[in-house]
Amino acid sequence: MKIDRQPPIGVFDSGVGGLTVLRALRLALPAEDFIYLGDTARLPYGTKSPETVVRYSLQCAAALLARRIRCLVVACNTASAAALSALRVRHPALPVIGVIEPGAAAAVAASQSQHIAVIGTEGTIGGGAYQSAIHGLNQRARVTAAACSLFVAMAEEGWTDGPIAQAVARRYLEPMFKNDDAPDTLVLGCTHFPVLTASIRTVLPGHIRIVDSAATTAAAVVRQLHNVTKTAGRGHVTWLATDGAARFARVGSTFLGEPLHAERIEIIDL
Ligand code: DGL
């Protein structure tokens, strides 16, 4: 009998990329229930204006809150960069955790030289959120940042390894790492990029550390929750998307690392 069930943890992303974060959350909190919302009808967020991303993020949060959640994880770097403070202002009683601060903390902890490279979407890099978060932790850190927009489409297409993935990775990353005083740490500041890690690794000097925010965000959520579900067994995930259950299931399986079933994904309107 489950006597200590808490309301689920709400998680949203522009689409399927946030499943890399959900995967880490489920590893850290296996007995918790989650509601995952992928705003697949309006993906990508990374090329949209901050105002639009704020509006979409507030709508995603409202849809999750309507189903009763006890905390909100913004599992999208672009939405975390643009909308975290708007979400906290709109919902002051709701714990809201984004992926940027945990990613920045992981990078500062990993880097010896404190010269850190960050890659993400146009929105994330253009808004300077990682740069500010890293400087908030170490004022003297140097940050070299670049938007790598093509990686998003490649990850969705399943082109995560082989010559095309490596050629694109080389084109984006070689200029960042060619000098003697190049960064020693690379932050994957986009939910889609962890599935490209092997290809990215092949074009980087061997000593470069690669960090992403999935595991550190999960650790931040664990710290945030006062009551974690103590029942044994696997928690339940409710799947929501705004379009395309079949594509969500097919592409999302790669990001989640386990099969997803289209018939279990409810399509909702925001
Ligand atoms: N989820 C987005 C992010 O982490 C990538 C996909 C998009 O552009 O919507 O920035």
Look at the helices and sheets and give the structural class.
Answer: alpha/beta
Instruction: Give average pLDDT, whole number.
Output: 94
Portion of residues in beta strands equals: 15-25%
Biggest sheet, spatial arrangement of strands: 4-3-1-2-9-10
What is the CATH architecture annotation of the largest domain? 3-Layer(aba) Sandwich
Distance between the termini: 35 Å
Verbal overview:
The protein has two domains: 9-98 and 217-267, Rossmann fold (3-Layer(aba) Sandwich), CATH 3.40.50.1860; 100-213, Rossmann fold (3-Layer(aba) Sandwich). Strand 7 (185-188), helix 9 (197-202) and strand 8 form a beta-alpha-beta unit. The chain is of the alpha/beta class and 270 residues long. It has a six-stranded parallel beta sheet, with helices on both faces. It has a four-stranded parallel beta sheet with strand order 6-5-7-8. Helix 2 (50-65) crosses helix 3 (77-90). Helices cover 44% and strands 16% of the residues. It binds D-glutamic acid (DGL).
